[in-house]
Design goal:
Elements (H helix, E strand, L loop, with lengths): L24 E6 L13 H16 L6 E3 L22 H17 L4 E6 L5 H15 L2 E6 L12 H4 L7 H10 L11 E2 L3 H7 L15 H4 L6 E2 L5 H24 L2 H4 L2
Parallel strand pairs: 1-2, 1-3, 3-4
Antiparallel strand pairs: 5-6
Helix pairs in contact: 1-5, 1-8, 2-3, 5-8
């Protein structure tokens, strides 16, 4: 039995010239190498991306043609550059680079692209690149992130969900599932966010949207992470991975079935 191919680099040039590629959905995964506090490695976002993709691949329907580009493991992490070890690329450079990759996807006769990020700091860049692909190539270009698919109901306390945005309960749980060898639970604790206190003092101003000011990670907590990492568990990470990967696969199905002549005027 031939193993199914999903990674872009595993296909041959002929595989892109057989007329079937035009029905495929390309996936551009982008992540980061940046500080994640005292308990998680710099590679957290990239490790989560690798694990989430592998989880999603296991859930792909056999009739869904997905071609995943190489994971881009360094992104825009300027909110963490004060911390040693963080790697960051300027937004303008990433826009050019990721747009050039989108151009290559278009040359392969693919008009459906999903850009998925495992790092919130990439969101603005991803949005710009997706719009560029629509303008340049009449491409259905979708931007998303794993956390946009939410978490299983009742798994995490509702009160913490909005503020647990970096290295906290759910990210630490995912790392306990994907790479427990890299997690230092003896260093994990409840890293409280400054955001609730800031919001209590103001009518609209906040460190988070919809009226958020620009921040760097240590503005929210001196440790550079926020959320109750001490409450993390492998079981929660496993359930979160399955939930988010399932949502991602359903999104890919939506994109594959989308009538381009109707959605793109």
């Amino acid at each position: 039995m031939t193993e199914r191919k999903v990674w872009w680099g595993d296909f041959t040039a002929a595989d892109f010239a057989d007329g079937k590629a035009s029905e495929a959905v390309a996936v551009l995964p982008v992540a980061a190498i940046e500080q994640h506090g005292p308990h998680l490695p710099l590679s957290t976002d990239s490790a989560i991306m690798d694990g989430m993709l592998e989880t999603a691949i296991e859930l792909l329907p056999t009739d869904l043609d997905v071609r995943i580009l190489p994971v881009h493991k360094v992104g825009k992490s300027d909110e963490h550059v004060y911390a040693p070890g963080t790697l960051s690329v300027p937004a303008t450079t990433l826009i050019d680079h990721w747009s050039a990759l989108g151009d290559s996807v278009a040359r392969a006769q693919i008009r459906r692209l999903v850009i998925v990020t495992a790092h919130g700091g990439n969101e603005e860049v991803v949005g710009i690149v997706a719009r560029e692909m629509r303008v340049r190539h009449a491409m259905l270009a979708v931007r998303t992130s794993w956390d946009r698919f939410g978490t299983p109901p009742g798994l995490y306390p509702e009160a913490e969900k909005r503020f647990d945005i970096h290295g906290g309960h759910w990210e630490t749980s995912l790392m306990l599932h994907f790479r427990p060898d890299l997690v230092r639970m003896d260093e994990a604790r409840d890293f409280a966010s400054a955001t609730p206190a800031i919001e209590a003092e103001n009518a609209f101003l906040s460190a988070q949207s919809p009226h958020g000011f620009a921040w760097i990670a240590r503005d929210l907590n001196p440790a550079g992470v926020v959320g109750n990492a001490a409450a993390a568990s492998e079981a929660a990470g496993r359930a979160t991975a399955k939930h988010q990967a399932d949502g991602f696969v359903r999104l890919l199905g939506d994109v594959a079935r989308a009538p381009l002549d109707r959605y793109l005027g």
